Amino acid sequence: MLVFISVCADAFQAKPAQTPGGLPYQNLPDVFPGTKPLTPEEDRSIKILEGAHRFIEEKIGAAPSQRSQYWNRDLSSKEAYERSVEPNRKRFMKIIGLEDKGEPLHSFKQVLKEMHPTTSMEKIAVDNDPIIVAETSRYRVYQIRWPVLNRIYGEGLLIEPKKPVVGNIIAVPDADQTPEQLMGLTEGIDAESQFARRLAENGFRVVIPVLISRELLFPGTLNQQTHREWIYRQAFHMGRHIIGYEVQKIISAVDWFKQFYPDASVGAVGYHEGGLLAFYAAAVDKRIDATLVSGYFSSRQKIWDEPIYRNVWNLLSEFGDAEIASLIAPRPLIIEHSTVPEVIDQAIKPGNAPVMNGQWPLTGYKGTLKTPDGRTVESEYTKIASLTKARGFPGGLVTGAKTSPLQFGSRNALEKFSGFLHTGIRLPLSGELPEDQRKTFDPAERQLRQVKELEDHVQWLLHDSDYERNRFFLYRIMPEFENRSWSTKPHHPSHRPDKFIEEAKQYRKVFHDEIIGSFEDIMLPPDPKTRKLYDNDKWTGYEVQLDVYPDLAAAGIILIPKDLQPGEKRPVVVCQHGRDGFPQRLIDLDYTAYNKTAAKLADRGFIVYAPYNPYRGEDKYRWLVRKATNVGKSMFSFIISQHDQTLRWLGTLPFVDKDRIAFYGLSFGGETAMRVPSVLEGYNLSICSGDFGDYSRKVVDTHFIRGFMNSMEWEIPVFNMGSTFSHAEMAYLIFPRPFMVERGHDDLVQQTEWVAYEFGKVKYFYDQFGLGDKTEIEYFNGGHSMRGEGTFEFLHKHLNWPYPQPK
After folding, report:
1. Torsion sign (Cα): 520, 526, 531, 534
2. Is 152 part of any domain?
3. pLDDT for res 781
4. What's the rounded Cα separation, in Å, for the pair 414 and 338?
5. 565 vs 424, which has greater pLDDT?
6. Is the pLDDT of residue 114 over 60?
7. SS3 state at 260
8. What's the gap between Cα 291 and its chain centre?
9. Looking at residue 311, which CATH number applies to its domain?
10. Average pLDDT over every residue of 143-165
């Protein structure tokens, strides 16, 4: 790499394009010296985006063969095996957003969990309806609720057999089924598939929880979200998940069983979405003695094409379904390959989709659920034995002839399952149906109550997130920040920046590796290709493309002032466009948001580089995020790598001062201005325009009408970012480099008061180190745009570049 860079730079210097005046930059050729010709593209950013898709698909394809590096299974004994996979279990719990009740909890959480233990199952009456919902000759059905987490309750049905109980079971329906349907109290499930009723009739005590449904929250709008997606979006950003919440409800039901019936066996059985939850709960909770998963188990290699609420951060890097099953081993696991109804998660009906930019249809499609191929299910199942080295792995795969799917809840599968809980049992099904005695019960009200409880819990986490982020980051490095004095005496900065800078390096790594997601690939030589696009009396502009990784490229437009002197090195300003933009909008197109900022800076004598970014093509870039999420990557995993290569290349140019490279971005470019310089120290200054503020609230707050919860931008949440890094924390990682915010009062991205609140933390932070002059904010009467006044002054000052002389 060093040899290549040296040769490239030498090649440029050896054959400068001299002019009669002696300056090498006034009459540059069509291809920049030392580079190869660049082929024109109709839309280069889309080509780069397509390459990024290929790149991440290769990562997904390679994931199964690389999972063994995360596992260290000890097969010498049952106890040794369970100890050896415990770190994997802990990581699995974290990525599904499950609260580990074995871990110490902070602040209010510990107090309130003591006030609301998770071991009390209440039989409840709703709207004067009876507590006993139904009764037959074999069992009684109760409506129940039980505490799970602070302000969160599980709800559903409890079925108590009248004959001696042979075991306890949690029966989990699909998200579009109700507990009542699974008991035959209401229509919707064939009698042969009413597995909860079959188990209850034959002596099992059964709890059936309510799941958050796939019902649409905002039908008929561009922001169509199912109830499950509504919880997923806000919870994901806070390090929680709809999956984790519902697994927690199952585990809390196990708590109740074990408190009152400690010697009785406990099983979990679920169908479709309930199959996922029963499967995940058994992987987490070793007290579940046997598990039946119906309509779920398969290869997860295309999990990114399932509905978005199944997105799990970094799942595929370590876990396929076989690996999750290995967390259940050696406990019994039965897989029933059953049919599932096709579910298409789509915001706009096909045929009614508007077309964006004449190219990419904005369909709002978010994934499909359908019955997996039987051979794929069988192949994934056989992996379990190879992972656990268990020839007689307890359980089995139940399928139809020639691996065809069955109707769910088959007697064969249930008897295999129940046999591990109580030997010799048979499961006939009677024709005696229970009759619901309730008169006012409304399942829709119960559903909304369950949704609202989860929403309230996430919104409480958001409210507390400032403190959580401080505890996570700031107070660990500088404990004295937690104990601010209220003295009225003049305060003089006493903190040493070098201490913070050194300690913050570990958090920069956490931010990059665990929150943003970093690629570990070796970067390719840049092999720059260029073509001249602009040539005026002040500067020349080249389109540039650089190799980053196989299939992933970086590109942009560099503006080179013509008054550069031989041997002179100048500062560079990297100007970044926003969503669905491209560099030309910053240079010569009439976009008021950008005000030709790149061209104006080049007129002032700065070298300017305007990159392409991959957030183009609307849903096409959203699907890049979908794919990337499940291998622990985000949109900015690609962008940081692209900027890393760009900085390396810029540093080889003989007229670039690599110690004076600034970043200035608007909107998504402002989002980039927060994240990229937080990781890449090659940027010695950053300006965030039209994006800075209380970012966690922007993403998670359900009441903010202009927030991402109320938009069609379903790809925005980043797992656990809200509890670890918001904009102030990113600015701490930029410190002690200069940092500025540009804010139009009428910018609808955030509220001015939110921006002021978040910047107040940054200003206080810089001031404590005596470096308050390195951070500024400029408010102006205007909207979502680069004003280019205070920011230009900031660039001149901190890049040590002279102001233009008045004419």
Report:
1. positive
2. yes
3. 96
4. 13
5. 565
6. no
7. helix
8. 29
9. 3.40.50.1820
10. 94
What pLDDT digit, counting tens, does each position of 341-359 carry?
999 887 654 444 433 333 4
Beta strands in 717-766 (DSSP E): 739-744
Q: Are residues 307 and 443 in the same domain?
A: yes
Q: Are residues 53 and 80 in the same domain?
A: no
Q: Are residues 110 and 160 in the same domain?
A: yes
Contact by Cβ (8 Å): 550, 55: yes
Distances (CA, A) of 673 to 176, 382, 643, 648, 763: 42, 48, 11, 18, 17
End-to-end CA distance of the chain: 45
Q: How far apart are CA 643 and CA 647, in angstroms?
A: 6
Any domain includes 467 = no
Task: Give me the number of domains the chain comprises.
Answer: 2
Tokens for 609, please give them: 């580089």
The verdict on 667 and 546 lying in the same domain is yes
The rounded distance, in Å, linking the Cα atoms of 112 and 109 is 5
Both tokens of residue 436? 């619901």
Residues 181 and 231 in one domain: yes
Locus of tokens 């670039």: 656
Split at pLDDT 50, 70, 90, the class of 494 is low
Same domain, 440 and 523: no
Could you list the beta-strand ranges (E) of 338-467: 343-346, 355-356, 360-361, 365-369, 395-398
In a domain, 221, yes or no: no
Residue type, 456: D
- Using alpha carbons, select from 792, 504, 508 the residue that is nearest to residue 675: 508
pLDDT per position as a tens digit, 393-424:
788 999 988 889 999 999 999 999 999 998 88
Report d(CA 6, CA 136) in Å as an integer. 85
Query: What SS3 class is residue 734?
Result: helix
Place of tokens 């890094």: 725
The tokens describing 616, both together, are 């183009």
The answer to whether 26 and 562 have CB atoms below 8 angstroms apart is yes
| pTM, 2 dp | 0.92
Which are the contacts of 262, defined by CB distance < 8 A and separation ≥ 6? none
Q: Which of 516, 458, 273, 230 is closest to 366 using CA atoms? A: 230
Assess contact for 683 and 572: CB atoms under 8 A. no
What is the amino acid identity at position 750? Q
Beta bridge partners of 294: 271, 336
Radius of gyration of the chain measured on its C-alpha atoms: 30
> 73-101: b or e for each residue (b if 16 or more CB lie within 10 Å)?
beeeeeeebbeebeebbeebbbbbbbbee
Range of the domain at 321: 74-216+226-342+370-460
Structure confidence by residue, pLDDT tens digits, 588-632: 988 999 999 999 999 999 999 999 998 888 888 999 999 999 999
Q: How many helices (H) and strands (E) does the chain have?
A: 25, 24
| Integer Cα distance of 612 and 575 in angstroms | 10
What are 803's two structure tokens? 């102001």
Q: Which residue has the tokens 């002197």?
A: 565
Asked if 124 and 93 sit in the same domain, the reply is yes
Cβ 684 vs Cβ 736: under 8 Å: no
Residues 123 and 164 reside in one and the same domain? yes
90 falls within a domain: yes
Among residues 460, 475, 505, which one ends one of the domains?
Answer: 460
